[in-house]
Structures are given as structure tokens and as C-alpha cells.
């Protein structure tokens, strides 16, 4: 059964919109393919006649849309409104040269990397001289001392404050230990 209404919303870029039926029912989705080919693009406010069918998502949608005074749509459904094709982009003369230059740069970098890898593989048979690194022993260790009179330097007091639990060397809580004796 055909209904009537008007096109209340239209998105030209995406080719769809919504029809507000005259019966007062909720707006119906309408795709550009539901419009007859002749007559130009749909416009908001346009009075339309349509059938209610099922859209791709299973919800009600307007189908076989007619415009007042227009020809009836064919029985197989309406053919989509065809938008004019955008004009072809003009060819940019320097793009071919740019692509060729990019390929050349990639080839040179690949050759350079392959040469570098080949020389590294040739040097792989030569063993590297062994070097010894002496382990670094910590200067101070947590040995149970917790108060400033037990320290021997400001550096030792700072180490104990940062690394040893239960120390009582920062009375004012400013992060500087033993301010009266070592760290002035």
C-alpha cells in the first residue's frame, strides 16, 4: 500500500535520508536507489509517494519512491539515481619522475645495506678481542647502622637513607641526611 510524506532529511554525499510520513508514523529511511532515475537529486521538503518495505538492516524503509506527476516505477524496483561523474583528475606531469626517483632511492639504500651486511659477514670469521670488565662493588652496604653518629661521610649517609630500611638520619624529612654532622 502506498503512503505519502515529505523528505525531511537528506545526505547528498552518502545518498540517503529520511521521509516523514503524512500518517504520523516514525520517519522512514530512504536510499537513493529507491528514487526514480529521472527528476534529479532528492531535495528536503519534497512531497513523495512510497511503499514501506524492509531495509538491509531489517527495519522499515521507504521503497519504490514516486514524485508527484512522475512516471510509475518499473515493477522490478526503481533504478538508482545516477549522479554525474566527477571530472577526471588532470595528469600531473612530474608524478612519473617522482615515482622513478623514489624507486632509485630505495634501490641505492638497499644496495648500500646489502654491501654493509656482506662486509659484516666477511668479518664474522675474525674473532673480536676479549675484554675484561671488573665487577663494580658497591661502595657501601646496609650493615645495621641507622643513625648519623655511626656514619663516616655524607655520601655514606645518603646511601643508607636511600637503600637501607629503618634508618633515622633525616629528622626534618627533606631528603638530606645528617645535616648537623655530615651533609651541611
From TrEMBL:
Span of domain CSD: 2-67
The organism's taxonomic lineage, starting at the top: Bacteria, Pseudomonadati, Pseudomonadota, Gammaproteobacteria, Lysobacterales
Listed InterPro entries: CSP_DNA-bd, Excalibur_Ca-bd_domain, NA-bd_OB-fold
Annotated organism of origin: Marilutibacter aestuarii
Protein name: Cold-shock protein
GO terms assigned for molecular function: nucleic acid binding
Disordered, as annotated region: 56-90
Domain of life: Bacteria
Amino acid at each position: 500500500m502506498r503512503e505519502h510524506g515529505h523528505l525531511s532529511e537528506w545526505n547528498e554525499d552518502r545518498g540517503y535520508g529520511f521521509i516523514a510520513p503524512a500518517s504520523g508514523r516514525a520517519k522512514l529511511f530512504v536510499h537513493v536507489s529507491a528514487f526514480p532515475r529521472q527528476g534529479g537529486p532528492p531535495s528536503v521538503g519534497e512531497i513523495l509517494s512510497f511503499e514501506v518495505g524492509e531495509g538491509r538492516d531489517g527495519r522499515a524503509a521507504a521503497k519504490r519512491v514516486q514524485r508527484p506527476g512522475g512516471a510509475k516505477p518499473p515493477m522490478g524496483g526503481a533504478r538508482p539515481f545516477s549522479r554525474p561523474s566527477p571530472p577526471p583528475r588532470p595528469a600531473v606531469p612530474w608524478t612519473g619522475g617522482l615515482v622513478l626517483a623514489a624507486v632509485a632511492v630505495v634501490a641505492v639504500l638497499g644496495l648500500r645495506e646489502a654491501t654493509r651486511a656482506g662486509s659484516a659477514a666477511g668479518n664474522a670469521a675474525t674473532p673480536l678481542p676479549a675484554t675484561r670488565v671488573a665487577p663494580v662493588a658497591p661502595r657501601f652496604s646496609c650493615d645495621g647502622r641507622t643513625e648519623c653518629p655511626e656514619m663516616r661521610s655524607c655520601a655514606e649517609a645518603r646511601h643508607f637513607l636511600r637503600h637501607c630500611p629503618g634508618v633515622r638520619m633525616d629528622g626534618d624529612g627533606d631528603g638530606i641526611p645528617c645535616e648537623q654532622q655530615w651533609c651541611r
